[in-house]
Amino acid sequence: MSHLKRILACSAIGVLSMLLLGAWALSSPVGATPDEDFHLASIWCGSGEREGLCGPGSVPENRAIPDKIEESICYAHDDTESAACQGPNFQDAGFGLTDTRRVNSDTQYPSGYYFWSSLLASDNLALSTIALRFAHAAVFTVLAISLWLLLPRGNRPGLLGGIALTFVPLGLFLIPSVNPSGWAIASGALLLPALAGYFRSSGWRMWALAAFAVLAALMSLGSRGDSAAYTVVAALAASVLSFELTRGFWLRAILPIAIVVSAGVAFLSAGQTGLALEGMTQNGFDYLNPGELLIENILALPELFVGVLGQSFDGTEFTGLGWLDTPLPATVWGPTVIVFAGVVFVSLKWIDWRRAVALAGVGAAAVAVPLYILSTSHVLVGYQVQPRYIMPLITMFAVVALTPSIVAQRAGIGIPGLTRFQSWIVAALLSLANAIALFANMRRYTWPGNFNLNGGDWWWNAGPSPMMTLGIGVLAFAVLAVMLAELAWRNRSRQEVEA
Q1: DSSP classification of residue 178
Q2: Phi and psi at residue 65, in whole multiples of 5°?
Q3: What is the predicted pLDDT for the residue at 272?
Q4: pTM of the model
């Protein structure tokens, strides 16, 4: 591909990505992600006390935050209530301050995400929320495209596969949001490919990928306490994929070792860590002894994994997007599960011990982490541990499955790929899942239970109509999916020619 064509392709991908993520950013009102009242309050106070935005509370642990934050979640947990309950003046500028304990004053979450997001906080809660959603979408888009350009050709399928196979619908919902899980998910998709590419590269490209890996790790460490643990998994998996008994490997391994040490410190110092290690609830299933509880959770664990891909699971608890109050039909998770399982299965046609060990390690973490938290909390799958908590591990699993080891790359052995026809089928199935998920999410807030979204009683004061937003999101994803399918096909063809 010529330099001009590469620029045009990257520009088109960037525009389509922003249209897609922008549609998702507009698809839900202020307060729509889990615990968003807490996260919005923490963002508005992320830079400390600021006149008119965040003030001291009635006690040291409290803060005075915009009263509209509490009002924004009036529809939470009731899937028959539209966002119109926020009131006709909710999106206007101005608010009063109210005392609350629902804020990150005791650093239960890392402060990095809240600090940087607070730079866009203003006296208009709705406008700032939309600005933050688009800013986070833009950051991820720029980082993903930049990493694609930096990576060696053999490492690019891992990046593309990790995003494409796991982001519909949960990643598309959370990346353009004000929830710190968006940063955790972004880091899960970017850090491992960056480190694997760093081991494989030399010269300026190696240093650029090293800097990129540090940035992705900082995003992880600044978002959630549990994300720090996943950073360790990413660094170890990339190191195993690149392992060689050479001096050069050990010199390069200084970077992932430093990331592991930093992540370990961040994990142990995060407030969330104590909750996870000690258990997140005292109201568990006391009729089950620890052994019975473990067996029940092992048998039900796939529900949690499939929840990442859109399965709502109401048998019992977590039910889709939002505050776990936006169930999605089977036509969302059916195609995403088929695509994920099919592509990963094809990738295992040939595997060496490095990739096998890395894949087993990430898979073991995806099993052990939720089982441990469920056991300490004494609850069954469906409670406490939400799919978004473990999504970075599922994304990493796809990345490793589609990333050849350094020895395999040097031998000219890539990952077994799909035919062009198969790639188009993948694009079609994911496009279908995205379209239905986006529609279901928008209908939940505009006009629950109805199909003409323009006839609902909630929407933004400015911007495209609900049906136009839906059309933009559906079309942008479909075109983007076709472009990426072709890009992946051509990338594989060049690898085979070079081999």
Answers
A1: S
A2: -125, 165
A3: 61
A4: 0.94
The token duo for 204 is 């300026």
Q: What is the pLDDT of residue 280?
A: 58
Give the span between the Cα atoms of 364 and 357, in whole angstroms: 10
Contacts with 390 (C-beta within 8 Å, 6 or more apart), sequence order = 304, 305, 308, 366, 369, 370
CB 440 within 8 A of CB 345: no
Q: Which DSSP category does 154 fall into? A: G
Closest to 65 (Cα-Cα) out of 89, 86, 36: 36
Checking 491-497 for CB contacts under 8 A at 24+ apart, the result is 491/153, 491/156, 491/157, 492/157, 492/414, 492/417, 494/153, 495/153, 495/154, 495/414, 496/414
Per residue in 330-345, pLDDT (tens digit) is 999 999 999 999 999 9
Query: What pLDDT score was predicted for residue 411?
Result: 86
Instruction: Take residue 241 and report the two structure tokens written for it.
Output: 């994929």
Q: 87 and 45 in contact (C-beta within 8 Å)?
A: no
480 closest CA partner among 3, 22, 154, 2: 22
Q: Which residue ranges in the chain fall short of pLDDT 50?
A: none
In angstroms, rounded to a whole number, what is the distance separating the alpha carbons of residues 115 and 45?
Answer: 8
- Residue 290, pLDDT score: 87
- Residue 382 is given by DSSP the state T
Residue 435: name the closest of 466, 478, 468, 464 by CA.
478
**Calpha distance 163→166 (Å, rounded):** 6
- The tens digit of pLDDT for each residue in 153-202 reads 999 999 999 999 999 999 999 999 999 999 999 999 999 999 999 999 99
**Cα–Cα–Cα angle for 275, 367, 172, rounded to 5 degrees:** 80
Q: Do you know the residue count of the chain? A: 499
CA-CA distance, 206 to 208, in Å (whole number)?
5
Confidence (pLDDT) at 6: 81
